[in-house]
Amino acid sequence: MYVVVNHVINDTSRFWAAAQSVTSGLPAGLKVIHTFPSPDGRKAVCVWEADSVESVRRFLDPATAGMARNDYFESPNKEGMGMPSLTRAAGA
Prior knowledge:
This protein is α+β, with helices and mostly antiparallel strands and 92 residues long. The protein has a single domain, classed as Alpha-Beta Plaits, CATH 3.30.70.100. It has helices spanning 12-22, 53-63, 85-90; strands at 2-9, 31-37, 43-49, 68-75. The radius of gyration is 14 Å and the shape is globular.
């Protein structure tokens, strides 16, 4: 599954230094697919491949403690362009 993480970063120098070192020693089952930082480095969206949202959360929250607020959600990526199925079902 894909897990999307929205980061709001309050300590950019520490966060990005940690990001560089963390990606070289990821636990088994976690893989960073892509990182999309804002130009100033204060926000980022990262796409992970993992078995669950919780496994990414258990790894990232301690690794970014005091540096960023993280928001996680699963993205099935069935169609390549993620149209939420609940929105379509509700007719919105």
